[in-house]
Amino acid sequence: MRVIYLSLSNGLWLNYWAKLQVWSRNFNKLRIMSANSPPGKSDGDVPQDRVVPPTPIETMGSRIRDLDVDSIRRYLAQKLGFYEPSEPPAQVDKVLDEVNLDGVVKWMKNSRCQNVITLSGAGISTSAGIPDFRSPETGLYHNLQKYNLPEPQAIFEINFFRQNPKPFFTLAKELFPGKFKPTVSHYFIRLLHEKGILLRHYTQNIDTLERGACIPEDKIVEAHGTFYTSHCLDCRKQYSLEFIKEKIFSDQIPICTECPGIVKPDIVFFGESLPERFQRCLQEDFQKCDMLIIMGSSLEVQPFASLIDMVPEWCPRLLINREKAGMRSPLLRLWGLTGGGLQLEDDAVRDVAWLGDCDDGCLVLADKLGWGEELRALVAREHARLEREGGLSSPHKPNPSVTPAADEPLPGQSTVTTEPKL
Predict the structure, then answer these.
(1) Which of 19, 76, 143, 390 is the most exposed place for a label (fewest CB within 10 A)?
(2) Marked catalytic residue, from 186, 193, 201, 224
(3) At what angle do helices 184-194 and 358-369 cross, to 10 degrees?
(4) What is the mean pLDDT of residues 310-336?
């Protein structure tokens, strides 16, 4: 082993150490999720009296905290060519025969693939006309200057909302769910359900388009809550969709009828607990998962971003997104922490990225699976139904557990033969 002592200024070491602490703190955030508080309830308002077993992510977080400055020094020395390990790293067997989209297709066609989990972010809804959060020029955060916020994210922070709810309700009127049709990506997820292989769909979105696509309610986990119900922040009285919609569209701040508290839709703000259902399904689903598909997410918001590391090590992971996301930190990779994100470089063994618009990626995947025409027909038929039934005026309601087959009309619906135009 050849070692050359690497000397760096204290300022540089402090910079790297600070970054390490940020990674550790992000993992620790998983511990503050309250498993027994309803959506919209702040962590500070709920006693944390339920002990939750440590997840694989928390275990990895403790390993990160054990790294010291010498570990970082050796990592930097190797990156700069000053250090060569005495033994090459052990080779990891490939999970996929081909670590590309064709390999994913072959895996999904195998009878072993029975429990697909999908994770989605704002990218699956942009083709419906809903902006994502972080895209330059068009992203939601880029276009919030008119609200005079201290920072763009403040519009979704619970403490700021308590002090000044008007910016959020002004934005909510503009983006109120129900004005938009589900996209090809949403119907691809529904097709996974109809094929009998969708274990669960986890979404960061609050637009209710999964419901509009008739994905059964028991298959959906709305990790960041929903617009469909609302609660008073103070007395917790529940309010209907009709109440909150009337107040929003009349440019009023919804105030509780029982106390002076503000009524907030049950979407999760920064600083609030995630829904109980998220925590419960999290413990049940991910060790069963045999195929993970991530669509349209930057994988930057915790704890949702860490879900990719909760599947078994032999489970393939496919990212469909405009750019690579959720990449494993090189420091974690060097120290053998294999659960630290997606590995999308040349030595990937199970992770594949398809870069482009989510709808295009879903169509390509469906075509390769032999489902392409079925997906196109499903989209055309369902869009026609929504137009005919006026289903675009309100957030989409929960759907029953049983979804009709692709060639069966929904109750009160005749089969539409319009040619798909995709």
Answers:
(1) 390
(2) 224
(3) 30
(4) 81
